[in-house]
Amino acid sequence: MSISGQEMEKLLQEFSENTEGVLGCSIILAKDALMLAEASQKYDSMVIQWLSERILSMAKESLKQLMNDYHLQSVTIEEENHLIFLRPVGTEYYLVFILNKEENRGLIEYNIKRLQEKLSKALGVQ
């Protein structure tokens, strides 16, 4: 990894400040959902870490049961007023977002894509 936790948190904070509706975001290590950085004042980091591990585990197990060869692209959970997104950064990291559903989803997706690209470059992943 060629980026520090503080630099990752700075990128996450910039994303949160420039994207309406972000209630929390983090980057986790995919293999054990270890949280590397976060930008949230609303959620306990242990809850996000546990939630991320459970969601990733369930998504991967579901795909494994359905098909032999898969590559998880994203996970989205939609609630009446909120969205939870898990998006990959390379194969080792995942971004976790908790969002207010009322905001412009297209703009949120665009900003997430930009953040993924910045982190991919900083982490040296494809």
The portion of residues assigned to helices is 40-55%
Q: What's the total helix number?
A: 3
Q: Which whole number gives the mean pLDDT? A: 88
Physical arrangement of strands within the biggest beta sheet: 2-1-5-4-3
Strand percentage, roughly?
A: 25-35%
* Overall morphology: globular
As residue ranges, the low-confidence spans are none
Radius of gyration: 14 Å
Question: What series of H and E elements makes up the topology?
Answer: HEEHEEEH
Structural class from helices and strands? alpha+beta
Counted beta strands:
5
Largest sheet: 5 strands, antiparallel
Span of the ends, CA to CA: 13 Å
Task: Tell me briefly what this model is.
The chain is an alpha+beta fold and 126 residues long. The protein has helices at 5-18, 45-66, 105-123, and strands at 22-29, 34-39, 75-78, 82-89, 93-100.
List keywords for this structure.
126 residues; alpha+beta; 5-stranded antiparallel beta sheet; 3 helices; 44% helix; 27% strand
